[in-house]
Every structure is written in C-alpha cells, then in structure tokens.
Specification:
about 140 residues; mainly alpha; Rossmann fold; 2 strands; about 65% helix; globular
Length: about 140
C-alpha cells in the first residue's frame, strides 16, 4: 500500500523519507531513472489533504467485501516478486479467492512500483485482459 508510505513520507520531512521509500519501492529494479524520479516527485507533491482523505478508506477496507464484488469480473492481479509492501503471497491468495477469474502476473525481480519498473510486462498483461474481455472470454 503506497498510500500509507506516501502519507508517512509527507508527515515526516520528505528529504529524510525519500531514500527509504525509494529503496522499498524501486531498489534492484531496472527502471528508467527518470521514471523513478517522476514517481517519487508525484509522491512528494501530492497534497497532504489528498493523502489524509485516503486514510479512512484504508482503515475501513473490508477485504471480503471487495473480493465478493470483484469475483464476477475479469481481474488482473499484478505483483512484483520482491514487493515488500504487498507480499507476493498476498497477491496469490487474492487471485485464489477470486477463483481464477482473470490472470495472475508475477513480475520477476520487481518491487511495488511494477508499473514503473517493468512497463512492458504490465502493458502486455493489461492488453491481454482487454483482449480477452473484448473477445468475450469472460
């Protein structure tokens, strides 16, 4: 969950929080340094009021309700194998709870910001999902 990490980064002086956040989300990746900096910049410039507005939904999130609403839909569960924010085991369990309606994509050597660090893999997975939906495979 990037929200709480970003909120923490904003509540603590950003200059002190940026390095640990960068390591947790991106380290070991082959992401374009410009893309990483753009993502970090997005976090650092998100208004505190926006981050605080997310807090209630995170506190009151009920996983079982969310899964039951998603179950009839084709879903792409996308995860980095090195994600320390949302471990890969959680992504596997979510996919199992959805009864396999969609696709589970585990991106090797990727952390939480898989869309930034591995855009080709993410785009390919999204296109597969959209193609399957368009063909009526779900």
């Amino acid at each position: 969950m990037v929200g709480p990490l970003a909120l923490l980064a904003r509540l603590v002086r950003w200059t002190h929080a940026a390095a640990p956040l960068r390591r947790r989300l991106f380290s070991g990746s082959e992401a374009d340094p410009g893309d990483v900096e753009a993502a970090i910049q997005d976090f650092s410039t998100t208004p505190l009021s926006v981050l605080l507005a997310l807090a209630p939904s995170m506190l009151h999130h009920r996983r079982a309700d969310a899964v039951s609403r998603l179950r009839p839909l084709p879903v792409l569960v996308l995860a980095g194998t090195l994600d320390a924010t949302i471990p890969m085991t959680h992504s596997r369990r979510l996919f199992e709870e959805l009864h396999g309606c969609g696709e589970l994509v585990l991106v090797e050597r990727s952390r939480h910001m898989v869309n930034v660090t591995h855009p080709r893999e993410v785009s390919a997975a999204v296109l597969r999902l959209l193609d399957a939906v368009q063909r009526g495979a779900w």
